[in-house]
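User: Structure with zinc ion, tokens only please.
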Amino acid sequence: MRRVSGRVYVPDARGQYRAYRALWVKEGRVAGLEPGRGEGEAILPGFHDAHVHVWKVGQLLTDLLDLRGVDSLDRLAELLRERDRRLPPGAWLLGRGWNEAVLGAWPSRAFLDAVVPGRPVVLTRTCAHIHLANTKAMEAAGVGPKTVSPSGGEVRYQEGLFLERAFGLLERAIPPRTLEDYRRYVLAGAHHLLAHGVTSALEPGADPLLLEAYRSLDREGRLPLRVSVLALVRPDGEDTLYPLPEPYRSDRLVIAGVKFFADGGLSGASAAVSRPYREVGGRGVLRLSAEELFDLALPAHEKGLFVATHAIGDVAILEVLRAYARLYRAKPSPLRHRLEHFGLPDPKGLILARALGVWAVTQPIFLEELRENFLRYLPEGFMPRCYNLARVEKAGVFLAFSSDAPVVRQVSPLRGALAAWRSPLWGKGLPLARGLFYYTQPEASGLPQARLWPGHRADLVVFDRDPFLHPEEARVARVEVDGVAVFAG
Ligand SMILES: [Zn+2]
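Assistant:
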């Protein structure tokens, strides 16, 4: 038995935090709590990031050119030239994270051709729904001015842009990632998350090779945190489907769900909305109708896998909820399916989400990092409902918070909870304690509850000072998974 003392904060079932002065750990589990208000370091349940692309975070930390925060085309050109000089001949130059609202302009194919004429270049926008290519890359992919856009996507040859499912055309030509690449990325991403107090995460969308990377790391006992993985079913740009995954469950790894996409992103004005976007116009891209989603998701639902669907715009959210309602009618199930993002639900969407008992897995940090895009593009009158987490909470919808990194830079749950509290686009913010509680919902991802109640796994984060009293200054000092230190600051 080991005693961990300090100011221990444990939420009850309704999310009210109570203070204790110590907790006891035995064989990786919480064995007991000592009443009283302790002093010194603050100890909280380890956070669950319910939607974070672990491998992409790792890839960005290792192999990709990180373009997040690049604030001018000149700076972008400089970074590209520098990387171009360091890559071996013939290698593709891949980058991610540009955002025209931060850059001050849209980069173009002509711009890329001028800066890096000698090798294929593909730069993914921060949302990952829009990709920019130079002419070399388009040639390698066999894409020309006469190429026809696939359904659910669009190629804009002149601009060099690939929207939504059209990326599949380009992706086929990019040298494939290996199993070892994936393993390296997952571990790099996992350690980055741990350093921010995240002890469990959901990987939202894995192809068969990434699933194998996770399974192999788990078999070797190398996963430093708990991960739940959603399998991709319909790869972009291809008509054949991946097979449904075999359910997998160990102490560290769960494969129990599948992922679909119903629309695009809000920051790039491609989420499917009922009113036109300002400045750029259009109502976004609906990638799946309720009927199509129902047909695609039924086999997973029948197999006992939970379904998670990306839906941001009010139109997409309703389509997904209609599909889910049909799934539950076709075969009643205690599984709670999920909507990823849930950015702009209309009143009907809120009522239906509550009635079906599904999870809204949402990203408060967007309010800070994608604010400029929201302010610029959001359709008239949509501001008050944009990631309005207080409204979703009030409607009684199950909420789980997440970062969606590397769409954003910040993976810290404390920063996310702070954004929900201090940066709303909709009046009064969500209290910090609510935000932290919604970052403590591993059951949204098919993982066991982890709230430091006796009997729960001793997955915990230690802050150097009380995050409720000093939210701006509190730093992660130590992290434990199964009562074993996995990070020390
Ligand atoms: Zn995502």
